[in-house]
Amino acid sequence: MPLLKDPHDLRIRNLIVKDSSEVTIVGVPFDGAVAGRPGARFAPEVIRNFLYSYTPICYGVDLRNLAIGDVGDIDIDRESIENTWKSIGNSIFELLNKCERLIILGGDHSITFPAVKAFERKFGKIGLIYIDAHLDLRELPAGQLSSGITVHKILQECKINPENIVYIGVREWVNAPYYLDKAKKLGITVFTTDITADRIDEITQQAYNIASFNTNAVYISFDVDVLDVAFGPGVNATSSGGLTPREVFRMMRILGNQPKVIAIDFVELCPPYDVANVTAQIVATSILYFLAGYSKLKELRETTQHKT
């Protein structure tokens, strides 16, 4: 029996172009800084496969009003993390000069460090929303590497005000007291999962308000291990008590709708450990909800411009 070919069944893949000045997608297939389970380097391809298989319409949102481009993957050097970070930073900076919204498909969480450096280089005063089960504030001896040092590196090498950094989804029982105290002393806002459970809309908006206060642009980093292990088995470091897909989808739509949000990365998806691609599908759907939020923001802007 031949494969079903319905000319009316439009999918996201039918909308993707090689390049776009509006929304750009780029992959970073690197997991050389993972201290736990490797495999995040396979995530960009897997995410794309699911993302591009969905339809562009949902709940009154039509993504056909967006110009979405995919520029492929950034070249990385598996022998040198310094060269990899340099390549990521240069590529991200170049893309930020060409597009209105940037979606980065990781990769382990270390890719966020050079991406944020490039983001700050482009926009100056920035805010950061870090959606993660972990604080990633580790202070390791010289020569040791882990994706858990990402925020520590950002604070060391960027000029970002800690008061414009917000965590969402930090997990109980998996973060050392030393780093919880450190975040508090720095003035970083931390929303743990016990707080977010029933107030996800309110907290997401509050997080944006904090990150965007007196800044020019906001960067979002989404570590997939913020999901509860029941929904996200395919990550580097699993643990129970995390967010549900529905909470994440609501969060993504709200954040996509915010005017100062310019870039977002999705990191730590580990396809070799996924179960029936459950985690990958949640990540792909999260991107769709982020795009849905941006689509509504674009519609509002166009309506306002038309009236004026």
Write the topology of this structure.
Elements: E1 23-28, H1 43-51, E2 57-58, E3 61-62, E4 68-73, H2 81-96, E5 101-106, H3 112-123, E6 126-131, H4 150-157, E7 165-170, H5 177-186, E8 189-192, H6 193-196, H7 200-212, E9 217-223, H8 245-256, E10 261-267, H9 278-307
Parallel strand pairs: 1-4, 1-5, 5-10, 6-7, 6-9, 7-8, 9-10
Antiparallel strand pairs: 2-3
Q: Output the radius of gyration.
A: 18 Å
Mean pLDDT: 93
What shape does the CA trace take?
Answer: globular
Give the number of helices.
9
Helical content (DSSP H or I, runs of 4+): 25-40%
CATH class: Alpha Beta
Please provide the ordered H/E string of secondary-structure elements. EHEEEHEHEHEHEHHEHEH
Number of domains: 1
Class inferred from helices and paired strands: alpha/beta
Assigned CATH architecture: 3-Layer(aba) Sandwich
The spatial strand order of the largest sheet comes to 4-1-5-10-9-6-7-8
CATH superfamily: Ureohydrolase domain
The profile of the biggest β sheet is:
8 strands, parallel
What are the segments in which pLDDT stays under 50 over at least 5 consecutive residues? Answer: none
